[in-house]
Amino acid sequence: MGLFDRLSRVVRANLNDMVSKAEDPEKILEQAIIDMQEDLIQLRQAVARAIATQKRTEQQYNKNQSEANNWQNRAQLALSKGDESLAREALLRKKTVAEAAATQKTMLDQQTTQVDSLKKNLIALESKISEAKTKKDMLKSRAAAAKANEQLQGTIGRLGTGSAMAAFERMEDKVLELEARSQAGYELAGNNLEEQFALLEGGSDVDDELAQMKAQLTGGSVSQQALPASEEKASPSSNAAVDAELEALRKQIDNL
């Protein structure tokens, strides 16, 4: 294979690829319909010309046929009158006109066949154009749907890395953080409440113990009243010690 053949093939391949990429289905379909409409106009004009030619040929054929019959009648008339020479001349004119009529009859048959063929082609082209228009509308709708779906898929694809989707992800993280903080605060509040009840429960034990000690002290002071007077004089110092110890216990309880 020569170098120029290879270069030519490469150039043609690249041109075909460029043309294929540049083809828009909607525009190509519209142009195809326009081309078919132009072909239809030309075919109609051709049919009209063929029919007009057929009509003229038919008129000439009928005229020559009528004239041939007329010369036939004249030849018969001249012969009946005994003018053989005139009858011969009439027959010669009839022959010439009859030959022209025969030629025109052949042309008329051919033109009739041609007109019939053109009419069939015209009907077929009109049917194809009608079908093409219907298919064009359907293909345009499918192409529009495909483009819309492609745009939708592109939009969905961009959502994964787009700023809008990133903002949604950030807000989701913030909501999760707020929920975690709320849960932590609830748990801490629950722990504080448990501690407060524990302190109250512990405080009740201390109060019971304090009440018991008060009862003991009260019982001790009664027994001391039954002692002799000499011993009663020595009790103030012991009572002061007990009061001091009681005060110390109270301070301990207050500090709990």
UniProtKB/TrEMBL annotation:
Ranges for region Disordered: 221-241
Transmembrane parts of this sequence: none
Keyword presence, Ribosomal protein: no
InterPro entries for the chain: PspA_VIPP1
Pfam families linked to this entry: PspA_IM30
Domain of life: Bacteria
Stretches of the chain forming a coiled coil according to its record: 108-149
Key words, A-Z: Coiled coil
Family the entry assigns: Belongs to the PspA/Vipp/IM30 family.
Protein name: Phage shock protein A (IM30), suppresses sigma54-dependent transcription
